[in-house]
Structures
1.
Amino acid sequence: MELSKSYWNTRYKTEDIGWDLGQVSPPLKAFFDGLPEDYKVKSILIPGGGNAYEAEYLHHLGFKEVYVVDVSERALQNFKTRVPSFPEAHLIHQDFFDLEEYRFDLIIEQTFFCALNPKLRPDYAKKMSDLLTENGSLTGVLFQFPLTATGPPFGGDATEYRSYLESYFTVDILEPCYNSIESRAGKELFFSVSKHE
Ligand SMILES: C[S@@+](CC[C@H](N)C(=O)[O-])C[C@H]1O[C@@H](n2cnc3c(N)ncnc32)[C@H](O)[C@@H]1O
């Protein structure tokens, strides 16, 4: 199955969005709540943000430089309608892998990695590194369940994830998540990696 723009857009149009929590993901909410004040003006990207409750949460906390990129026009439209005060120019309707003219201090992972064809995993790590500023970091949640041929979501484990990330990043945290929503308990890893010098 080709995970194309139209595949994702149709899933939003038909509301076939089982991944959608309808709220900010609790592990990310805890992470955002602990961010230092200076992050309010740092540039933050949420790739494959979908309905982007994480962007909404940050926006309402006063974070000014939050961006969402998604291939689904409908998802971005949903977000625009729900959060009209969010800067429209920060909603990027594009393929993450085609982003060129941006750099971010922080990138947030939330069910984007698992939505990609697993063959793109090495490219994901490289692109994340390319998009980050010198001391930038990538933080979020990755699934841990066996990788099968069918998805999305596509699973994996910490050892596999390290094999991609360690080419570009220092792995600061990669551990079982203690504050997942009930249906994902035991199936998530919280991670934070910082770009190599
Ligand atoms: C499983 S959904 C997760 C959405 C959101 N992060 C959430 O947790 O509800 C995957 C999202 O990634 C988007 N997506 C898939 N491939 C993409 C790509 N190459 N570039 C940008 N967005 C992409 C889809 O449109 C979809 O919104």
2.
Amino acid sequence: MVTRTECLSYLETLLEPNRFHDYCPNGLQIAGSEQIENMVSGVTASLDLIEAALDFGADTLLVHHGYFWRGEDPRVIGIKQRRLKQLLINNVNLIAYHLPLDAHPTLGNNAQLSQLLGLEVDGRIVGTGDPAIALCGCLAEPKSVPEFTDHLRQTLGREPQVIQAHNRPITTLGWCTGAAQGYIEHAAELGLDAFLSGEISEQTVHLARELGINYFAAGHHATERYGVLALGEHLAQRFDLNHQFIDIDNPV
Ligand SMILES: [Zn+2]
């Protein structure tokens, strides 16, 4: 068990949210219990995740996608009212970390994806945010497009969308979880064989073909399960908490 204040001050030191220009507030978004003992982590603070957290008896919900995004309707009505109401009447803290959790060098989404897929990190891709969040590196052994596709399918449990722009084996690549398809041009500037992210847009297909870089869309949710899971486990160990990661299926 830990006090909420102590847990949050530890998270500030660990994730350094003030270094990022983010689209949402990072840290405590909704205040609930002052003691933290039972924590549920998950990708997105949807109503399904909140209800699963309440079934677990959580006093704290830790997520990657929280609330209060820049430009959203600030009124507490509809979906937002129903989500906030469940958290507030049950005295559950909502703690959310967005870009700081993508970027963290060991617990972050991109670092965790590297470990999971066996990607060796050489550095960050310049231009992918300030500070940069996308990583570049290489595969220990070059893989053909079908081999790498198979590797993604087996590791992430879903069929990736693949845009093949050349037939060379994949040795060097860049990657960034989530809706990071726009970074493909920065990856191509480095002359990498491939770029991997979560979501794909219509124009990503043309960019990949014309830039001559293979592109893999492995799923926004599928690529972003691992940072918040690692952070939840890290906090559970550090503060002796009961913790469970709950995966609410999302095909995107
Ligand atoms: Zn995301």
3.
Amino acid sequence: MSPQDHHQPQDEYRMAQALRLASRGLGLAWPNPAVGAVVVTPSGEIAGRGWTAPGGRPHAEAIALNHAGAKAEGSTVYVTLEPCAHESVRGMACTDALLEAKPKHIVIGLRDPDPRTAGAGIERLRAAGIEVTEGVLPEEVARVTLGHLMRVAEGRPAVTLKLAVGADGLVPEGDGKPVWVTGPEARAHAHLLRARHDVILVGRGTVVTDNPALTCRLPGMAWRSPIRAVLDGRLRTPPDATLFDDIMVPVWLLCAAGVDQPNAELLHDRGAEIVPVPVDNHGRIDVQDALETLSHRGITSILVEGGPSVARAFLDADMVDEVVVYQGRGQAGSDGLTPFAGDGLDRLAASGHFTLSATRTFGPDRMTSWRRVRSCSQALSAA
Ligand SMILES: NC(=O)c1ccc[n+]([C@@H]2O[C@H](COP(=O)([O-])OP(=O)(O)OC[C@H]3O[C@@H](n4cnc5c(N)ncnc54)[C@H](OP(=O)(O)O)[C@@H]3O)[C@@H](O)[C@H]2O)c1
């Protein structure tokens, strides 16, 4: 019998609680995965809850065990990802913390494919006589943990592509500032998406045309603004771009490696970090290399916010895990651009690579979200 076969119905309920806690760390926990943990006593009391702290430490289990104190002994601990088995300079391994706390039972969503753990945490817990159940809500856990799983399995962060289109399915052209085709509710949701990712990425064309700030502007959530990254092969981002005004939020300019970059010093003086990336056969920054570069920097998730040329490049590379489309009621008009530089929205359904996963309305606007069919299975096969 596989370990998945004998979990109890309440395990799924508790794992869902742990997953909601895990989600709180999205956009903050990198370079570590956003994990959630709940400690439940034999009488059913929740004695401790935790989620990965900003910057990745302390881990969720350490926080939850700390809350629970002596009540952790004999408890059941629900944790979305296998507890780490490796000590780090920043803290003890969660497996050791659990062994010290002496729970009776540990319920795990997914194994951690990180080679430093990869089943070793589970083995050590079982060897100490603790009952371990694994594989509870694996698909849901894979979705929340996708960035980490992709980073380990594919060497790249999870990618969400976001775009806003008019009722005609076209992208309105910028005119020195962003043009809004959707109302405040949809835009607020899009800012929440920003907060849940480690990096927002756009092409240089969007910086030049829209001059966006690319920060999270929900009340009280400015501190959740992710790093802003621009694909800018020859470092031609204008030094007076609005991006540079907020010095608290880093700007990474991803440029072509091995090419003389005369503006590098000027842009560096404006606060940008210059990040060289190999180019493809057309002399463009290679999407896969850009993602690998971000992954090496610890990034687990990125939100691609356009424009159409960059959106197309990511789709062509088959490196988009989710697409979120906000569709307003107004028309983008005769100057409207096709959302994927030559291809319309129908590309998503026609490609067979994506399935419609959710629809929502925000006032007069409609959001549809599309999942890449292969991403979840790729992530699950890694775990
Ligand atoms: N409604 C929306 O959701 C939304 C969102 C964003 C933008 N927009 C609109 O989209 C328009 C800008 O889009 P765009 O397509 O012209 O520009 P873009 O996609 O923002 O940027 C394209 C530029 O990125 C650089 N780049 C580097 N590597 C690349 C790669 N591998 N693939 C593609 N580009 C790469 C290139 O500049 P270098 O050659 O200099 O490297 C390229 O010209 C504006 O009108 C803006 O208002 C709409």
4.
Amino acid sequence: MNNDTSLGLRIDVDTLRGTRHGVPALLDLLSRYGIRASFFFSVGPDNMGRNLWRLLRPSFLKKMIRSSAASLYGWDILFMGTFFPGPLIGKRCPDIIHRASGLGHDIGLHAWDHYTWQNHILGMPEADVALAIQRGFDELTRITGRTPSCSAAPGWIADGTVLRMKDRFPFTYNSDCRGTRVFMPEVSGKQLRTPQVPVTLPTYDEIIGRDGVTRQSYNARVLALVKPGALNVLTIHAEVEGIVCLDLFEDFIQQALGQGIRFIPLSECVSMDSPPRPARIALDTLPGRSGKLAVQVPDAEGVS
Ligand SMILES: [Zn+2]
């Protein structure tokens, strides 16, 4: 490891609106600064409006108010798929996804159906998990003309079954959990072959409005968490940093570059710690996020 400070940039695309409006804006922005990143696309039905039903849960309602979800995502996203079947994102926006692929970014699978993955993937039979991945994999392959090189679980919702089913696909890396270093996942004592690139930094909606973090102080707060010489991975959302927070994100890029931070796609993070040591994942809670998500389990000596 050296003192080079690099920041892996993971861009999650959850919805039709994010694909249609957020992705082109981000592609233009990244091109202006000569930055390559990892894009993870959702290509099946946009049913994200069904998340409205989660409003019934008080903790989710509190989070929606804190992060002004309606202004972040737009009312059309919040209602999408609630009163009518969700539109197929890959069928509506193939050109945009294809364009991202042609610009040299890592192109990965986020989900076939983001809503269903986030809410129902845990506990699904193996065959259904494999089918959910296969449908997205096939659609993304059809759109870009090449197999996706990586994948990233929506909402970091993943367990041993998810990791084992993903290992059957020709992904060169996956990003399914939060953690601190690149590792080879171990499931039921067996080491898988696809390295994990965990996300190390919090997302916008996790820290905005908490502990006094405002739009004005947000960028400095995140940059203070970037560690020289270590794995740094940030997730942004096409729906947030690509639309309502686009100016804020451009300011983030400028500040980061000014501090000598180099943006890289997650494929370049894999070689930083080679060969990656094994580690396990577990489901746990995280500040600012409702429900459990996959986290990297620290080694026996506490080093993660
Ligand atoms: Zn997502």
